[in-house]
Structure formats: structure tokens, C-alpha cells
Design goal:
- This protein has a single domain (14-241, 342-502), classed as Alpha/Beta hydrolase fold, catalytic domain (Rossmann fold, 3-Layer(aba) Sandwich), CATH 3.40.50.
- It is globular, with a radius of gyration of 22 Å.
- Helix 8 (252-271) runs antiparallel to helix 10 (299-311).
- By secondary structure, the chain is of the alpha/beta class.
- The chain has helices at 14-34, 108-114, 160-177, 194-208, 227-232, 234-240, 246-249, 252-271, 273-282, 299-311, 346-353, 356-361, 375-380, 393-397, 415-422, 474-477, 479-489, and strands spanning 46-47, 63-72, 77-85, 94-99, 118-120, 126-128, 138-143, 185-191, 215-221, 323-324, 332-333, 401-407, 442-446, 449-459, 462-467, 493-496, 499-502.
Length: 508
């Protein structure tokens, strides 16, 4: 989920403080030991119990590991991770790292509402998640950048380049704990603002640690990869989905905003042409121009979403139905939340993760209360010296493959914007941008099921899949469909004419 507001409780209640004080002595020794994490082994991170876990059939309970690793002790910076294996002795050769977006939104959304094997329902109870990606590989969910979720720091990162450095540090610490994972195929996946993180991480691995880590590909769901181009598409997408009228679209205000964003895109592409060329060829670049502009996205384009939400506001509707849900336009929400009160399980997940017993189960010291999305990482990430991740894609595609997946009900990172972005991308052996003529959509299904989940296309290492009826959080709505799409990515499919038939795992 993208962090566009996120109201959250900043101060604990007196009762919560009392409850925490009652258990603080239980964590003191643990916190001291966590400062010497290098001496720990994987088994020290093993998770053997969670509330309501005993309600899940034993054969569906994964092996789990969780806890902190140090990133920078000088600023008390540590990352929290939550790992799942399908079996007690994993023999899966794939390892998928998952990152949620924001910036500042916790990957525990991914772990416990989306692609992970466990799902926290509205009653706050754990269920087995049908369609889990655990059928395709071992999963590691990382709260990052520091300050996000359970991860902590005294100094949040201000640049994507620095966040990429931190992820390399996390990899060093993680693989020291799980050295058996070093030989596995590594994939980086996630959603939303992870469309910035993942290419930055991928390029950093490929340029600085390709001999250490067997990176094989990137998976981005509703990725916020080229923000200006993607934001430009919002009015067109809203018009074609009848969210606004022709008169609203053709209004002076809307046309002026479209023109301003188009001008911004043209100017930045011209201004940064040599920089982008370097990134395309080498995968890396860091500005030193000293300017205080956010080089990843411009206000002329990012203001479009807010304008659209204002245009579609219905003050005559019930309070909880006045605004479009920006993450699923088939739903509505209160204003100014406009999608922030969704998914409906989010309050239960918050309660679940802040249970004192869960702190202990996940080897947490209890010093940081979990929130879905935190202010500090969001406000700190100014990107004065970092550029849109889009310009790293040609370099990455010269080394590994990429899957772009889009839920067709998402407004903020919609399919039009993704296609417009791809139409500006030149990759592989091609000399012109976009997919070649003759590369067409094929239906996406799974074995033993005639349901058409969406469509997909492929050329020269780049997959693009659109999932019908899915939101910004595709695995939350349609986990089986999202897994079918990554089965294409993993070459676990067959062709029936022009229809892609992904594997079936018996939980569809």
C-alpha cells in the first residue's frame, strides 16, 4: 500500500504503557543479547507458536523464523524479518524476499494479508492462506526502510541509494544466519512503492554482489516505478472507468494539470538524459547537484490523484461512502481516508501484531509498537540525489527477468500508467520502446480450472500481467491469480493456444 496519509496512534494509552511495563523485564535480557546478534544461529530465530496457530491443520503450518538483525549500531538501526518455509526441512531452491511500499508501510501486510501462508481474519484469528506464494518458494518478509513496521532507527534514510546500501547489509546478516540459502535462486518481490525499492536493490546486487547472491528476477505488483508517467494516466483511467464525466475530464482545470505534468515529464527527461543513460548502462547513479527537489516524482504530476479524489467526492453519500477508494475504485471510503480504512482486516492485524505474546513469539523486545504505515520513513525520504527506478530497468533486464503485475481495479498505480511506462522502455535486443507489434495478450488460467484470471504478455525477459477485479494489493484479493502470474515468471506453465495455463496446487 502507498502511504499517502495514514493516521495512526502516536502515543500509547496509559493502560498500554502499564501492560508494556509489566513485561519489560522479560525483554531486557533479549534486547541485550540482540546487540550481539552475530553470534546467533537460525534456530535462535525459530517461531514455534503464535496466537490461534493451533487452529490450523498441522500439515499447513509452515516453519517460521523471525527477529531483528543489526544494520547500523551507531544509530540503533535494525531490520525485522519474518521467514516462512513450507516444510520443516526446506528443499525449495527459490527464495523470495518481499517488500511492501509506502514509503514506510510494513511488509507484515504482505506476510499476514497477502502472499504469505498465514492470514489474519477480521476476528484476529490466523487462517491458512489459499494461494500462498509459499507453494513456489521460501518467503522472507522484511520491514524496511528502518522505522517501518517493527524495524527501528534513530535516523531514517533520506535517499533510495542509502536504502539500497542498507538492504545489502541486511543480506549479509541474513545469509550469515541462513547460509544454506546462498545457493538458491533469489527473487525480489513486493508492491506499490516497492516499485522504487526493488529495482534499486536489484541493481545494487547486480553491480556490487552478483558473485555472492544468485539474483534471478524481480516481481513488482502495482509498482510505483515511474511516478510522473503513471500519475499522468489517472484522469484517462478514471474517465474510461466512468469515475468522471467527459465534462469533468475536458474541464480547464484537468487539462491544465495534464499539460503541466506532460511538460514536467518532457523537461526532466531532457534535463536528466545523460544521467538516465548512465543508469541504463551501469545500473547506478547518484546526483551531487545539491538541489532540494524530489527527483523521483514531481508535484505537477503527483497532485493529480488528490485532484481526482476531490472531483469524485460525494458529500451527499453516507459518511463512509463519500470518497473513492484509491486502491480499489469499485469501493468507497470516508473522506479524507479514500481507501486508508481498507483492507477490512487491517484493525485486527494491528491488534494481533501488538499483542505482548506476539512480541515474545517473534523475538521482539517490545520497544516499538507496530503500525501499518509510519510517518518517519515517509517524511525522511526526500530523494534529492536519487532518480526514478524506471531508469534502472534496461540494465536489470540485460541481466535478469522482471514481472510487472497490476490489479485492474487499482486507481493509484493503474494498468494504463503501467502500459504507458512500458511504452517508454527499451530493453533486451529491441531498438524501439514498448512491446513489439505482434506481442499480444494471452488469457491467464490455471490447470483444472477454467476461470480466466486476467491476461499476460511477454517479450525479452519482461512479463506484464493484469489481474481482473484485483486491487492495489493483488494477492489480498486474488492470491491464486497472483501466484498463477508468478508461475508464468517461473516458467511453471503450459500454453493452450494463446492461453497461459499455470500450475495448480490444489488450493484454488
Amino acid at each position: 500500500m502507498m502511504f499517502l496519509k495514514f493516521q495512526y496512534i502516536a502515543v500509547l494509552t496509559i493502560l498500554q504503557c502499564i501492560a508494556r511495563a509489566a513485561v519489560i523485564t522479560d525483554y531486557l535480557i533479549g534486547k541485550q543479547l540482540l546487540n550481539k546478534r552475530e553470534s546467533y544461529t537460525a534456530q535462535d530465530y525459530a517461531v514455534s507458536t503464535l496466537p490461534s496457530l493451533d487452529g490450523i491443520p498441522t500439515e499447513q503450518i509452515p516453519q517460521m523464523f523471525a527477529g531483528y538483525v543489526d544494520i547500523d549500531q551507531s544509530i540503533d538501526e535494525k531490520y525485522f524479518f519474518f521467514r516462512f518455509n513450507k516444510t520443516q526441512a526446506s528443499n525449495n531452491n527459490r527464495l523470495i524476499f518481499w517488500y511492501n511500499g509506502g514509503p514506510g508501510c510494513s511488509s507484515m501486510d504482505g506476510a499476514l494479508l497477502e502472499s504469505g501462508p498465514l492470514f489474519v481474519n477480521q476476528e484476529g484469528k490466523l487462517e491458512y492462506k489459499k494461494g500462498t506464494w509459499l507453494e513456489t518458494g521460501d518467503l522472507v518478509y522484511v520491514d524496511q526502510p528502518a522505522g517501518t513496521g517493527f524495524s527501528e532507527t534513530e535516523q531514517p534514510d533520506s535517499e533510495l541509494n542509502k536504502i539500497a546500501d542498507d538492504m545489502l547489509t541486511f543480506f549479509e546478516k541474513y545469509f550469515a544466519l541462513f547460509p544454506e540459502d546462498l545457493g538458491k535462486e533469489i527473487y525480489l518481490g513486493g508492491e506499490s512503492y516497492a516499485g522504487q525499492y526493488i529495482p534499486y536493490f536489484g541493481a545494487r546486487i547486480l553491480t556490487q554482489a552478483a558473485d555472492k547472491y544468485n539474483l534471478k528476477g524481480l516481481i513488482m505488483i502495482n509498482g510505483y516505478i515511474y511516478p510522473d508517467v503513471q500519475n499522468l494516466s489517472i484522469f484517462d483511467y478514471a474517465l474510461d472507468n466512468k469515475l468522471i464525466t467527459d465534462a469533468q475530464y475536458n474541464s480547464r482545470k484537468v487539462q491544465q494539470m495534464i499539460a503541466a505534468c506532460n511538460t514536467t515529464i518532457a523537461q526532466t527527461q531532457e534535463e536528466y538524459a545523460s544521467i538516465f543513460k548512465t543508469m541504463e548502462q551501469t545500473g547506478e547513479y547518484e546526483s551531487t547537484d545539491g538541489s532540494d527537489s524530489n527527483k523521483v516524482e514531481d508535484d505537477d504530476c503527483s497532485s493529480i490523484l488528490e485532484a481526482l479524489l476531490d472531483m469524485t467526492l460525494d458529500k451527499s453519500a453516507p459518511t463512509d461512502q463519500q470518497c473513492l477508494n484509491q486502491y480499489d475504485f469499485s469501493l468507497r471510503d470516508s473522506y479524507p481516508a479514500c481507501g486508508m480504512n481498507w483492507p477490512v482486516e487491517e484493525p485486527a492485524l494491528n491488534t494481533f501484531l501488538n499483542e505482548q505474546s506476539v512480541y515474545a513469539d517473534l523475538h521482539l523486545d517490545g520497544s516499538q509498537k507496530w503500525t501499518e504505515c509510519a510517518d518517519a520513513p515517509y517524511n525522511a525520504l526526500v530523494n534529492h540525489n536519487s532518480y526514478p527506478a524506471f531508469f534502472k530497468l534496461p540494465y536489470i533486464l540485460s541481466k535478469v527477468k522482471i514481472m510487472l503485475m497490476v490489479g485492474e481495479n487499482d486507481l493509484v498505480c493503474n494498468i494504463y500508467g503501467m502500459q504507458d511506462m512500458v511504452n517508454k522502455l527499451t530493453w533486451g535486443s529491441k531498438s524501439t520502446p514498448g512491446y513489439s507489434n505482434g506481442v499480444n495478450w494471452g488469457d491467464l488460467t490455471i490447470a483444472d480450472n477454467s476461470t480466466v484470471f486476467g491476461q499476460a504478455k511477454y517479450e525479452d525477459g519482461l512479463w506484464l500481467a493484469k489481474i481482473a477485479g484485483a486491487s492495489h494489493m493483488v494477492p489480498y484479493d486474488h492470491a491464486v491469480a497472483s501466484r498463477a502470474a508468478i508461475d508464468l515468471f517461473f516458467d511453471d506453465y503450459s500454453l493452450d493456444g494463446t492461453t497461459y495455463v499455470a500450475k495448480s496446487y490444489g488450493d484454488n
